[in-house]
Amino acid sequence: TRETGFVNAITAAGVTYAVTKACTLGNLVECSCDKSHSRRNGGQPQMVNAVTAVAALEKQQSVFERNSTKNPLRKGNGNRRRRLLKNIKFPEGEWEWGGCSDNVNFGFRHSRVFLDSKYRRRT
């Protein structure tokens, strides 16, 4: 019936959400971050600290300096560069987890295997 279909759909969505959230929080061993939204580190959690933040900023700044013809940060303007670096807020503590994208595909696949198991035994 339509009511049974609705209950099954809500149940499937709930199981998919629970599996996806558990994966994102790192509570499941066999899953990883969503690779379709991968970051520079192959979709894995990124460790961020003041050293890596400064390195990333300096790399970005060097690319900007190479690509810009009228750049106020060129040689001879070191005071401005120091002021810019001084005003940047870095994370507190030694490191901070950069996060993980929800791996919805993993949640969907595993919830489907779980929910369809009773139907697959019959065939």
TrEMBL record:
Keywords: Developmental protein, Disulfide bond, Extracellular matrix, Glycoprotein, Lipoprotein, Secreted, Wnt signaling pathway
Cellular localization per UniProt: Secreted, Extracellular space, Extracellular matrix
GO molecular function: cytokine activity; frizzled binding
Keyword Metal-binding attached: no
GO CC list: extracellular space
Keyword Ribonucleoprotein: no
Source organism per UniProt: Musca domestica (House fly)
Name recorded for this polypeptide: Protein Wnt
A Gene Ontology biological process term: cell fate commitment
Entry's family note: Belongs to the Wnt family.
Taxonomic superkingdom: Eukaryota
Function, as annotated: Ligand for members of the frizzled family of seven transmembrane receptors.
PANTHER family: PROTEIN WNT-6, WNT RELATED
Pfam families: wnt
